[in-house]
């Protein structure tokens, strides 16, 4: 059962009627009946008054920008090219509860994932979509995920009634009309398809949030999204495509990861590329945005083995980033891009006199303005009596990477970039050292990536914090069983001639007084150390959980990178092996895999067991907290 919608009876008439002669010609020129069949079916079913077909031409791109202002989905701000968009008050983040896989009765996907019987789910979403675009204009857009003309490229088709979605996608993704035009599809499954409608609007925002649904049909490579506007639920080519790409990658022997891609400068002209997976609020964007290094992508990476090497490409060409705490001191490059003329969409920030404001921007905010709650004033509370922040915690900016000074020249390289290191970053107050390298690929995937956790901050959940398990930081997007996902990762490494080093980082280690042990800029040093390690240019200390830096090397790097004196006392505090916490973590992770994951790979337990033995042996010899000196 692929799709419950019947074929359009008179396709040509329907397309001419909805898309007018001009749009019809653009579709005809694709010479791609599988694509136009799909479009016709959904135009007939969603029934917009008209539909605009976006080719790759500048004129079409501008039409969408202009319409977004005319329709009020975006408002022009004072600065040239800047606009603001608001999502509904209760539509400010990904809706995990209503994001489901449409699951055929003979398939299972694992207890971790939300799913609904396929027939039931398709019926429901089909009902929601029926005539949902009546009275509106639809936008038919074509994108290319990954660099063009490359092994990485995946064609993606978006049908939406939101100019905000279409405009965001124009900033975030490469044009794909030409890709569709030059490619013959045997089957609709060969391209990704996204059908979105914000549903009826009230005050410019989705009115029927209770009908918000994001349903993924993995067999058909189609995702439906209704009655929502927030980007993470609606921008098809982003997280909705990521779920499809994870499944596709699994079938084809490559990987789709929730990772940044960045180049770290080594000596002379050397640039060494890393990918990094960190759950949210663990430092992912701030790492990829370090001003002295180079950015390929901040969110998603496609990883392929090409001639025995690990190559990575960014399916995106833009950033949909959290704006909170973006300040001239901490994020000078983003700050510059979003405070100078150029194309930027702000979402869910505070607006006053045509200017955007957000929490943590490093200057005083106005006491009133317009935000995601409508008219806002200091002290305003919502219906439940909760104070409304001036800007939402998840307020965002949308920009092109090419508009950032730290853009990497290889963003569009059809072969991607060669990856020498993979970083897993967690928020962890008491276990992981600030930086550590695994013994080998398997050790890294299993004890670092698969054991990734993030701690909720003490401000929200009591002092000790709660740890959330998030393997490879990819849990929200997995569309295959965790067992399979982990096995794929292991197998992938086995195919590489010289697998990259796998590191863990932890920017949030604390001392016994609950004080952070590291400064915000120390990550710049860890990156340089990792860069050197991937070239085997520094030695390291072998501990039971991985290799850690030697004091002398860090002393030199702190001096060179930050102009800071790094004391041996700090080193000892930061890099001591905390054995009881490590042992507790191993037990925690084992329990999670036993209880929550069906038939977790045996190799995972074996590797954790080996680590446990090494830790216990060290404990016997040196006690609970072991100074790195002991391992030298
Ligand atoms: C994330 O939450 O991981 C994001 C933003 O990158 S969203 O588009 O909502 O997924
Ligand atoms: Mn993300």
UniProtKB/TrEMBL annotation:
Q: Which organism is it from?
A: candidate division MSBL1 archaeon SCGC-AAA259E19
Concerning its family, UniProt says: Belongs to the phosphoenolpyruvate carboxykinase [GTP] family.
Where does this chain mainly localize? Answer: cytoplasm
Q: Which residues does UniProt mark as catalytic? A: 282
Q: How is the cofactor bound?
A: Binds 1 Mn(2+) ion per subunit.
Positions annotated to bind GTP: 281-286, 396, 427
Is the Signal keyword given for this protein? no
Q: Which GO terms describe its cellular component?
A: cytosol
* GO biological process, alphabetically ordered: cellular response to glucose stimulus; gluconeogenesis; glycerol biosynthetic process from pyruvate; oxaloacetate metabolic process; propionate catabolic process; response to lipid; response to starvation
Reaction it catalyzes = oxaloacetate + GTP = phosphoenolpyruvate + GDP + CO2
Q: Where in the cell is it found?
A: Cytoplasm
Q: Which enzyme class, named as a word? A: lyase
Q: Which co-factor is required?
A: Mn(2+)
Indicate the segments forming the Phosphoenolpyruvate carboxykinase GTP-utilising N-terminal domain, all copies.
37-249
| Annotated metabolic or biological route of this protein | Carbohydrate biosynthesis; gluconeogenesis
Q: Which residues bind substrate?
A: 94, 230-232, 280, 394-396
Q: What does this protein do?
A: Catalyzes the conversion of oxaloacetate (OAA) to phosphoenolpyruvate (PEP), the rate-limiting step in the metabolic pathway that produces glucose from lactate and other precursors derived from the citric acid cycle.
Keywords attached to this entry: Cytoplasm, Decarboxylase, Gluconeogenesis, GTP-binding, Kinase, Lyase, Manganese, Metal-binding, Nucleotide-binding, Pyruvate, Transferase
What Pfam families does the record point to?
PEPCK_GTP, PEPCK_N
What EC number(s) does this enzyme carry? Answer: 4.1.1.32
| Residue stretches making up the Phosphoenolpyruvate carboxykinase C-terminal P-loop domain | 254-614
Q: What is this protein called?
A: Phosphoenolpyruvate carboxykinase [GTP]
């Amino acid at each position: 059962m692929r799709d419950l919608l019947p074929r359009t009876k008179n396709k040509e008439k329907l397309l001419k009627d909805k898309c007018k002669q001009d749009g019809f010609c653009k579709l005809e020129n694709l010479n791609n009946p599988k694509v136009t069949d799909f479009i016709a079916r959904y135009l007939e079913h969603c029934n917009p008054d008209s539909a605009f077909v976006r080719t790759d031409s500048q004129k079409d791109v501008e039409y969408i920008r202009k319409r977004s202002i005319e329709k009020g989905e975006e408002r022009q701000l004072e600065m040239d090219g800047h606009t603001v968009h608001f999502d509904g008050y209760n539509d400010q983040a990904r809706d995990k509860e209503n994001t489901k896989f449409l699951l055929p009765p003979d398939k299972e996907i694992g207890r971790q994932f939300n799913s609904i019987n396929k027939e039931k789910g398709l019926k429901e979403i089909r009902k929601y979509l029926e005539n949902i675009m009546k009275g509106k204009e639809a936008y038919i857009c074509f994108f290319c995920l990954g660099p063009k003309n490359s092994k990485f490229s995946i064609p993606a088709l978006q049908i939406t009634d939101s100019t905000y979605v279409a405009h965001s996608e124009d900033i975030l993704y490469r044009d794909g009309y030409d890709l569709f035009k030059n490619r013959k599809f045997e089957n609709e499954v060969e391209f990704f398809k996204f059908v979105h409608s914000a549903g009826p609007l009230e005050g410019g925002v989705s009115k029927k949030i209770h009908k918000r649904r994001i349903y993924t049909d993995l067999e058909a490579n189609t995702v439906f999204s209704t009655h929502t506007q927030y980007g993470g639920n609606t921008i098809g080519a982003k997280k909705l495509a990521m779920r499809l790409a994870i499944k596709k990658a699994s079938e084809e022997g490559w990987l789709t990861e929730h990772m940044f891609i960045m180049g770290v400068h080594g000596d002379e002209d050397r640039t060494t590329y890393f990918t990094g997976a960190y759950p949210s609020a663990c430092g992912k964007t701030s790492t990829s945005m370090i001003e002295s290094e180079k950015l390929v992508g901040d969110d998603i990476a496609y990883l392929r083995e090409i001639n025995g090497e690990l190559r990575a490409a960014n399916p995106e060409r833009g950033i949909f980033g959290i704006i909170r705490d973006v300040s001239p001191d901490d994020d000078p490059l983003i700050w510059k891009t979003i405070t100078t003329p150029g194309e930027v969409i702000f979402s869910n920030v505070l607006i006053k006199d045509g200017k955007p404001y957000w929490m943590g921007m490093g200057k005083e905010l106005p006491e009133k303005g317009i935000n995601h709650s409508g008219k806002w004033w200091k002290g305003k509370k919502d219906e439940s009596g909760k104070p409304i922040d001036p800007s939402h915690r998840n307020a965002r900016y949308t920009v092109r990477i090419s508009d950032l000074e730290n853009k990497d020249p290889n963003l569009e390289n059809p072969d991607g970039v060669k990856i020498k290191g993979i970083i897993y970053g967690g928020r962890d107050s008491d276990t992981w050292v600030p930086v550590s390298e695994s013994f080998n690929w398997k050790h890294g995937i299993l004890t670092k990536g698969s054991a990734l956790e993030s701690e909720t901050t003490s401000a929200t959940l009591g002092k000790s914090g709660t740890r959330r398990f998030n393997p490879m930081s990819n849990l929200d997007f997995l569309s295959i069983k965790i067992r399979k996902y982990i096995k794929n990762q292991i197998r992938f490494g086995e195919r590489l001639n010289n697998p990259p080093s796998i590191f863990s980082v932890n920017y949030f280690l604390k001392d016994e007084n609950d004080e952070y042990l590291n400064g915000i800029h120390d990550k710049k040093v860890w990156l340089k150390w990792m860069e050197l390690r991937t070239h085997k240019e520094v030695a390291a200390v072998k501990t039971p959980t991985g290799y850690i830096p030697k004091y002398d090397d860090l002393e030199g790097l702190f001096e060179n990178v930050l102009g800071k004196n790094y004391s041996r006392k700090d080193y000892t505090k930061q890099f001591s092996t905390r054995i009881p916490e490590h042992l507790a973590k191993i037990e925690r992770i084992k329990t999670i895999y036993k209880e929550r994951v069906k038939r977790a790979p045996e190799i995972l337990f074996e590797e954790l067991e080996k680590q446990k033995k090494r830790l216990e042996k060290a404990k016997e010899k040196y006690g609970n907290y072991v100074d790195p000196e002991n391992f030298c």
